[in-house]
TrEMBL record, chain A:
The chain crosses the membrane at residues 62-83, 90-107, 113-136, 145-163, 195-214, 277-302, 322-340. This is ABC transporter permease. PANTHER family: ABC TRANSPORTER, PERMEASE PROTEIN, GUANOSINE ABC TRANSPORTER PERMEASE PROTEIN NUPP. It comes from Nocardioides deserti. Pfam families: BPD_transp_2. It is found in: Cell membrane.
UniProtKB/TrEMBL annotation, chain B:
It comes from Nocardioides deserti. SUPFAM superfamilies: P-loop containing nucleoside triphosphate hydrolases (SSF52540). Residues 276-303 are annotated as: Disordered. PANTHER family: CARBOHYDRATE TRANSPORT ATP-BINDING PROTEIN MG119-RELATED (PTHR43790), GUANOSINE IMPORT ATP-BINDING PROTEIN NUPO (PTHR43790:SF4). Keywords: ATP-binding, Nucleotide-binding. Pfam families: ABC_tran. Residues 14-247, 307-546 form the ABC transporter domain. This is ABC transporter ATP-binding protein. Residues 278-303 have a biased composition (Low complexity). GO terms for molecular function: ATP binding.
TrEMBL record, chain C:
The chain crosses the membrane at residues 32-54, 61-87, 93-112, 133-154, 185-207, 219-246, 266-286. It is a multi-pass membrane protein. Coiled coil: none annotated. It is found in: Cell membrane. This is ABC transporter permease. It comes from the Bacteria. Keywords: Cell membrane, Membrane, Transmembrane, Transmembrane helix. The keyword Iron does not apply. InterPro entries: ABC_transp_permease.
Length: 357, 548, 299
């Protein structure tokens, strides 16, 4: 058995590959569902369909998808330029720190000033965390995978250090920060729901990113830089500078995600502000084909599953980690299936024994 | 079924029968049969892209043929990996050496025979030294391969083959990257191997070397074996004709209309560009001369210099890759740059392209100093580029239309957005004009080499460059694309642009150029009108024989 | 302020042990040219499976064996993705880490909803009562057997040469008759088994229980150590000791509470920052293995 490079890719292949990957993922997740004593089909309905059947469910899906939209598009922009930013988690956390700092320092600001300032501080925090690896990559050619990755645990330690020390809650003494000034509360985007304006900001960011990536000269250059850096360089694209810029934009957008989560959901900094959103962002970006529309669809799908998983854990007692399992499995299954686009399996019988010693 | 001339030799050591290998639409090897006897040196001759490398990979188990067998000593083999080939006694010295740079000579030589357990380095080292002595190679067995010169690395490869008791040694383009001294040493080694009774297959596209080293020559063209001759009795032009192909009429015609100074080689291979040029040439400026043959002196072609290098030097790691190059290309002339590969041509093209920085000296395009300009400014100044690394010049996964506008994106931007209609229209126009067999939205990766070259040509010419720098423009192309490219270059000259043509194909250089400049070890060692550029004279210069 | 130096060294050796096991595992896989980001998940898997098997069987030895098997499986999976399918190494590794952690947490919640189970029997400490020598046998084996043996194998055996050849140049290895695929599979499976042992050490020897934050970034530390050590065994061990030393110092300062002003988190972050700083200073000269991050296909 071996893999043979395809000459041409049939049109039906990509959709079929995704379909197969989804089916494989469903089949594989049936095992833990069964182990938990639930019926897979009923559970799937609750994971995938139930959240979409009620207004409140839909709202929860949008709310859950919001941080993933930020981190997903952040990672997608960097990956597209060929800059492997694995550090969206840390950048998200630093964004949250930045927003918390302005939110707890300038508590009296009115909303029209406070909200932009909050987002700005978040973007600045994420950007700050992205600068060092991007600079090391540009100046000394140091692999960004390791540096961006290692800054994630550092960011978490910074959050914990702040919460254990200077930012410890002044009234309760718990290890979470004081509440942000009320001007920093993101208003609801949809009345009477928890969906906040962070979702709106995410959509705006994604639309802008989508237009830039797909419809502008910069987008073409980013694609060229990511797919064939040498050819891009030959054609006059300054690959190093482009990657540097994409890295910073990526960090800033991940930071906006942290800002949105602090101002829209928690209204304070907690150690659990990021539920692995930065890492999940890698899944969102990759599954979304590093494109804007793909990122939106995948973020919504994962939001749906995540809400469904909470629901199932309450009703059917299947632990909520099934949602995380599902998204990771889906990533690996889709990537595997997509390799089928480039290669096809060829079974070859072991021909003619003998001859060679 | 192979040439009757060789049936007298002993039972073949290596025998290939009916090897066929297809890649998609391309038939890389078509029913190739071949024998090598003990103590025989067989040369396999063929142009780049003729299928030689594929055949070698088949023999060495790196590529599995669709049909055909490989036999050693009359026993058919099932070779599916280099290990099998080596076990069967076949050793290979590839073009890109298969050495681990961070390992010592000893470890590299012994690598393939090593088991999993402890390595007795002292014993291995002794045997490696012994194998080196057998072929007259002297190298420090403890040096890291990464610190060796190219010629030394090749010797390591040969020692490797011998170390494993190979009886057939295949040398794939062994002289491509060697200095003349290294070539002499190599040939000496080959003779020793022959005396020892080994069978040797030398793959090459260089007629002269083949004549010097081989007993027998087989010729491969477009995947088929088209000739099998005894070296001592075959004439060069016959081999060249076999290699070049085309109908016998064409060869005859080429022979009948030789360039200014006919020689055997050139008469056979130096293709005249078809003279029935499109009418466009009638409208060109006075600066454009009639191409090629009329030029008698260096200054015969007039026109302003559109490319001028003055004292251009490029150093890296304290070594001069190019030193003090003075060179000018005028409007309406093609200047050929000759040289054995590795003498600075690649670097020169990179410097001109803007991907390698200049250490000192100046570089002007159409009167503008672009010594330290970025790619965009060079293009704006009127530079066009077509390098030998085609795959490194396109973004394979991107569409034809996007690749076509990649160097000119601002011109296709309206109010910040790409004007997709204009991009598409441009692609359609280029596809039409350059006869590219593809649709605008096709990924470039799916195109054939010839069509990819046309895309690059279209991109370079679309901006009407004042000077075009072009390297190995026809390497690996089929005869149709080959002619097409030559025709385009000639047309460009007629329209009054300058062309710097870098090529390892002397015949191509002599067919197209008005002047020929020779590069040796990063220096210009000769410059002459094409009429005086006989292969012999160029050969001497390229080997460093004419340096002042 | 008083620091008990011997106790500090003892703690350092204990803390360094999982880093030595998993770090050497990562070193082996990276020598074959695979950056294995599934290390964090594989350590987690080893910790959990080791704990689970030990809890069920009552024997830490069974736990260790189960952890090794789980590591081999994780390595084979990673190899399937990046060697057989040729997928991107970062994304596959990260995806596998997320998957393995999710599987473990899921199972843990399912089996021990809300409990904090402990093992009846965990690995005992040898030479109890001494400061420095009171260590687990896995610590002794890690420093005195695993590290020298790995060093020797990489340097002086055919196996090491094969790994070296595959990691530096596919073509050279292939032409020498060395299977790139088989070598990388073996490297990933053996390396991942060592990572799993590193994880299992935490549950079977140190804690005697399982918590959801048991590995908490130690895998990422190992990746840093290996690059910091430029893929050499002894510098990696040294790096693990330095890291562990800082961690131990931080713990002791926290206990003696003489250093309230210095947040413990800062001390914990120092090793990561030190590695990044080392990369920044020495990074220009770091020479990655030739086939790093690449998948191999014959033409």
């Amino acid at each position: 058995m071996k893999f043979v490079l395809r000459g041409h890719e049939p049109r039906w292949l990509a959709p079929v590959a995704v379909l197969v990957a989804v089916l494989v993922t469903l089949a594989l997740t049936a095992v833990p569902i069964r182990l938990a004593g639930a019926a897979p089909l009923a559970a799937y309905e609750r994971y995938l369909v139930t959240p979409l059947t009620s207004t409140s469910g839909l709202h929860e899906v949008l709310l859950t998808a919001t941080p993933l939209l930020f981190t997903g598009i952040a990672v997608a922009i960097a990956f597209r330029a060929g800059y492997w930013n694995i550090g969206a988690e840390g950048q998200f956390l630093l964004g949250a720190i930045g927003t918390t700092w302005v939110g707890t320092t300038f508590t009296d600001l009115p909303a029209p000033v406070a909200l932009p300032l909050g987002f700005l501080a978040g973007a600045a925090g994420g950007l700050l965390w992205a600068v060092v690896p991007a600079w090391l990559k540009r100046r000394a050619g140091i692999d960004e995978v390791v540096t961006t990755l290692l800054l994630n645990p550092v960011a978490l330690l910074v959050v914990q250090g702040l919460l254990n020390g200077p930012w410890r809650n002044s009234s309760s003494g718990f290890t979470d920060s004081d509440r942000l000034g009320s001007g920093f509360d993101l208003p609801a985007l949809i009345p009477d729901s928890r969906v906040h304006w962070g979702f709106g900001v995410a959509v705006v960011v994604i639309v802008v990113a989508g237009v830039v990536l797909a419809r502008t000269a910069t987008g073409v250059r980013i694609k060229a830089a990511g797919q064939a850096p040498r050819a891009a360089e030959f054609s006059g694209v300054d690959v190093g500078r482009l990657q540097w810029r994409c890295a910073l934009v990526s960090g800033a957008i991940a930071g906006l995600g942290g800002a949105s989560q602090v101002m829209g959901v928690q209204h304070q900094l907690t150690a659990g502000i990021s539920d692995g959103y930065g890492y999940t962002g890698v899944i969102v970006a990759t599954l979304g084909g590093l494109g804007a529309i793909g990122v939106v669809l995948v973020a919504l799908l994962l939001g749906d599953i995540s809400v469904g998983a909470q629901n199932v854990s309450l009703v059917l007692q299947v632990p909520a980690q099934l949602g995380a399992m599902f998204s990771a499995l889906l990533l690996l299954a889709v990537l595997s299936a997509m390799s089928w686009r480039r290669y096809r399996l060829q079974w070859r019988p072991r021909s003619r024994s003998g001859g060679s010693r | 079924m192979t040439g009757g001339a060789t049936d007298t030799v002993a039972r073949p050591l290596l025998e290939l029968t009916g090897i066929t290998k297809r890649y998609g639409d391309l038939l890389a090897n078509d029913d190739v049969s071949l024998r090598v006897a003990p103590g025989e040196v067989v040369a396999m001759l063929g142009e780049n892209g003729a299928g030689k490398s594929t055949l070698m990979k088949v023999v060495y188990g790196l590529v599995r043929p669709d049909a055909g067998t490989v036999a050693v000593d009359g026993r058919p083999l099932d070779i599916s990996s280099p290990k099998d080939a080596m076990a069967a006694g076949i050793g290979m010295v590839t073009q890109e050496f298969s050495l681990v740079e961070t390992m010592t000579v000893t470890d590299n030589v012994a690598l393939s025979g090593t088991g999993l357990g402890r390595v007795d380095r002292a014993e291995t080292r002794r045997r490696v030294v012994e194998a080196m002595e057998r072929v007259g190679v002297s190298l420090d067995p403890d040096r890291l391969v990464g610190s060796l010169s190219i010629g030394e690395r090749q010797r390591v490869e040969i020692v490797k083959a011998l170390f494993h008791d190979c009886r057939v040694v295949i040398l794939d383009e062994p002289t491509a990257v060697l200095t003349p001294q290294d070539v002499r040493a190599l040939f000496e080694t080959v003779r020793r191997l022959r005396t020892a009774g080994l069978g040797i297959l030398v793959v090459s596209h260089k007629l002269r070397e083949v004549a010097e080293i081989s007993d027998r020559v087989v010729v491969l063209r477009r995947g088929r074996l088209v000739g099998d001759r005894v070296t001592a009795t075959v004439r060069d032009e016959e081999l060249a004709a076999l290699m070049m192909g085309g109908s016998t009429d064409e060869v005859a015609a080429a022979t009948a209309t030789p360039a200014a100074e006919p020689s055997e080689l050139e008469a056979a291979v130096g293709m005249e560009v078809p003279t029935d040029q499109p009418a466009a040439s009638a409208t060109t400026t006075a600066a454009s001369p009639t191409p090629g043959t009329t030029t008698g002196t260096t200054t015969g072609t007039t026109g302003e210099p559109v490319l001028r290098l003055t004292g251009l030097t490029v150093s890296r790691g304290g070594r001069d890759l190019l030193s003090g190059i003075d060179l000018a290309v005028r409007a309406g002339e093609i200047v050929g740059l000759a040289g054995v590969s590795g003498n600075g041509q690649t670097e020169l093209v990179e410097v001109l392209s803007g991907t390698l920085p200049v250490t000192s000296g100046t570089l002007e395009v159409d009167g503008q100093d672009v010594t330290s300009a970025d790619v965009g400014r060079r293009l704006a100044a009127g530079l066009g580029r077509l390098t030998e690394d085609r795959r490194g010049s396109v973004v394979p996964q991107m569409s034809v239309e996007q690749n076509l506008v990649l160097e000119d994106l601002p011109a296709y931007t309206r109010r910040g957005l790409l004007d997709r209609k204009a991009v598409r229209a441009h692609a359609e126009a280029m596809i039409e004009r350059f006869d590219i067999r593809a649709r605008p939205a096709d990924a470039v990766a799916t195109l054939s080499g010839g069509n990819m070259q046309k895309v690059l040509l279209a991109r370079a010419l679309a901006r009407r460059p004042r000077v075009l720098v072009v390297a190995q423009p026809t390497r690996g192309l089929d005869i149709g694309a080959y002619r097409y490219v030559h025709q385009q270059l000639d047309e460009l000259r007629t329209e009054g642009a300058g062309v710097l043509l870098v090529s390892e194909d002397l015949d191509e250089l002599r067919a197209l150029s008005d002047r020929v400049v020779v590069l040796f070890r990063g220096e210009v060692v000769g410059e002459m009108p094409v009429a005086e550029a006989s292969p012999d004279r160029l050969g001497v210069l390229m080997a460093g024989g004419g340096s002042s | 302020m008083s620091i008990n130096l011997l106790a500090l060294i003892g703690a350092m050796l204990t803390i360094a042990t999982p880093l030595v096991w998993a770090g050497i595992g990562e070193l082996i896989t990276e020598r074959s040219g695979v950056l294995n980001l599934s290390i964090e998940g594989t350590m987690y898997l080893g910790a959990f499976i080791g704990f689970l098997a030990a809890a069920r069987s009552g024997s830490p030895w069974v736990g260790l064996l189960a952890a090794v098997v789980s590591g081999v499986v994780a390595g084979a999976l990673m190899a399937f993705f990046v060697v057989t399918l040729g997928l991107n190494q970062h994304v596959s590794g990260l995806g596998l880490t997320l998957l393995l952690i999710a599987i473990c947490e899921f199972t843990f919640r399912l089996l021990y909803a809300g409990d904090r189970p402990t093992l009846d029997d965990k690995f005992a400490v040898l030479f109890r009562g001494t400061d420095v020598l009171a260590q687990h046998w896995l610590t002794y084996v890690g420093f005195l057997v695993l590290a020298p043996v790995t060093w020797w194998v990489l340097r002086s055996t055919g196996l090491g040469m094969r790994l070296h050849a595959v990691g530096e140049s596919f073509e050279a290895a292939d032409v020498a008759g060395i299977s790139v695929t088989a070598t990388r599979y073996v490297a990933l499976m053996v390396g991942s088994a060592l990572m799993a042992i590193g994880g299992a050490f935490l549950t079977l020897a140190v804690l005697g229980s399982f918590t959801l934050d048991i590995v908490s970034g130690r895998g990422w530390v190992c990746i840093a150590l290996v690059i910091f050590a430029r893929w050499r065994v002894w510098p990696a061990v040294l790096g693990a000791l330095i890291f562990a030393g800082m961690d131990a110092l931080q713990l002791q300062l926290a206990i003696t509470s003489a250093f309230d002003a210095v947040p413990g988190e800062l001390m914990l972050a120092l090793p990561y920052l030190a590695v990044i700083a080392a990369l920044a200073i020495g990074g220009r000269t770091v020479r990655y293995p030739g086939s790093y991050l690449k998948a191999y296909r014959r033409a």
